[in-house]
Amino acid sequence: MVKLGVIGCGGIATHQLKSVWEDGLFELVAGADIRPERLDLFRDTFGMKEGYTDFRELLRKADVEAVMICTPTWLHAEHVIAAAEAGKQVFSQKPMAMNSYDCYKEIKVCQENGVKLQVGFVRRFDTDWGVVKDVVDSGVLGTPVLWRQIAGGPGPARPFFMDRFEGGGPMIDGMVHNYDFGAYCFGEPVEVKSMPIRIHHATTALDTGTVLVRFETGNTIMCSWSWGLPEGVRTNASTEVLGPNGVLFFPGSYDPAKAKGKFDSAAEGAYLLVLKDGREEVVKFKRQNMFREEMRHFADWVENGGDPLVGGDAGLRATRVAELALSGGGLV
């Protein structure tokens, strides 16, 4: 079992640990959070032995070999660097930092202290999202392709997400998943164009915008998101990949009647591939818990050696795209 410490015992940390807890891969030795009630919850839920309101105390006193960073984005760099300097292996939630320079510092300090860093781009571990890469790699859509996503609703409840300096809004906190998965599918990003605005009176972050990212392969992603709508209001959502040979429609973006009876909805999900002359094909995948697979990978490389599948280079790349998206764009 990996002796684990958690810095930031909030909702995402709870979700991550619950997803893998029955596998018996981690012993939760210690947690740190400025809210004592969160430490009490972790004691009750995971049998956590030690709780600290100062993360530095955890790193000095607790007998842990790895640390999971689940604090607000603007604190990631400070906490990753402190954990690395204490000689702990590190898992950090995304985004890796609020700016690419802090990402660079995290990578450098981890290297200097002989520890490794995994960044929480959980889609890399999902059979659902894996369909997208498989279809693109197969060449069935042709090339170049455009992966586009349109969505809108209220922002996350915790205020830091919508603070310009602490969370940065959807073009960094949410779309960063798209930037990373785009790079996973298409290679290095080369150019970003964006039109960010703020529409909600109570936010300081840019809460709405459209971002285009062009990759070295000529493929492009387009994300048009808003986190500026009032509570209870959401737009229609649509996600698809377009190519010269057809379209891959994501689950929820096509008429479900087209796939009815063609997959086991209890255990599977399905994309819809539409090709020349309207030929349709249901592309199935077996459902799994991507958070569980992500944490199993973390436990594996900490205990058995090897390298994280998603390291600091991926976090730096995605954060650089986010920086450009928030400033109107430019060359990566």
Q: What does this entry look like structurally?
A:
This protein has 332 residues and is α/β, with parallel strands linked by helices. It has helices spanning 11-20, 36-46, 55-61, 76-85, 100-112, 127-138, 170-173, 176-186, 290-304, 312-326; strands at 2-7, 26-32, 50-52, 66-69, 89-92, 117-119, 146-152, 189-197, 208-215, 220-226, 238-243, 246-249, 268-275, 280-286, 329-331. The protein has two domains: 2-123 and 290-309, Rossmann fold (3-Layer(aba) Sandwich); 124-288 and 321-331, Dihydrodipicolinate Reductase, domain 2 (2-Layer Sandwich). Helix 4 (76-85) packs parallel to helix 5 (100-112), helix 5 runs antiparallel to helix 10 (312-326) and helix 8 (176-186) packs across helix 10 (312-326). The radius of gyration is 20 Å and the shape is globular.
- CATH homologous superfamily assignment of the largest domain: Dihydrodipicolinate Reductase, domain 2
CATH class of the largest domain: Alpha Beta
Strand order of the largest sheet: 14-13-12-11-7-10-9-8-15
Order of helices and strands: EHEHEHEHEHEHEHHEEEEEEEHHE
How many DSSP helices? 10
User: What is the global morphology?
Assistant: globular
Topology, number of strands: 15
Q: Helical proportion? A: 25-40%
Rg, Cα atoms, Å? 20 Å
Main pleated-sheet profile: 9 strands, mixed
Mean pLDDT: 97
Strand content range:
25-35%
Low-confidence stretches: none
What structural category arises from helix and sheet content? alpha/beta
CATH topology of the largest domain: Dihydrodipicolinate Reductase, domain 2
Cα distance, first to last residue?
A: 41 Å
Number of domains: 2
At CATH's second level, what is the architecture of the largest domain? 2-Layer Sandwich
